[in-house]
């Protein structure tokens, strides 16, 4: 991904950058500040992927559909029109990435 200074748009239509930063922020502390800074410095407007991360804990209100299977359900309902199974006419146009916790576990070990 190019640096953010080379492009006016830094976010993608799928909100990948924001979702990734929210995921890292959900763990709190300063351990991931270097990763967050590095991500902020890059233009991710070409990212065409949805991030569905799992964050441990009990989530309520607005945070209830931010993580895990409830976010996946929300996005499938939004993009598939709530009718599953869906036809190729309503098929999801963006890939989905799940099980992102491994990345965080590895980065905390280093």
Automatic annotation (TrEMBL):
Pfam families noted in UniProt: Tyr-DNA_phospho
One GO molecular-function entry = double-stranded DNA binding
- Protein's name in the database: Tyrosyl-DNA phosphodiesterase 1
- Species of origin reads Desmophyllum pertusum
Reply yes or no: does the keyword Nucleus apply: yes
For this protein, the record's PANTHER family field holds: TYROSYL-DNA PHOSPHODIESTERASE 1
The entry's localization annotation reads: Nucleus
Q: Does the keyword Nucleus apply?
A: yes
**Listed GO CC annotations:** nucleus
GO BP, sorted A to Z:
DNA repair
UniProt keyword list? DNA damage, DNA repair, Exonuclease, Hydrolase, Nuclease, Nucleus
The record's similarity note reads: Belongs to the tyrosyl-DNA phosphodiesterase family.
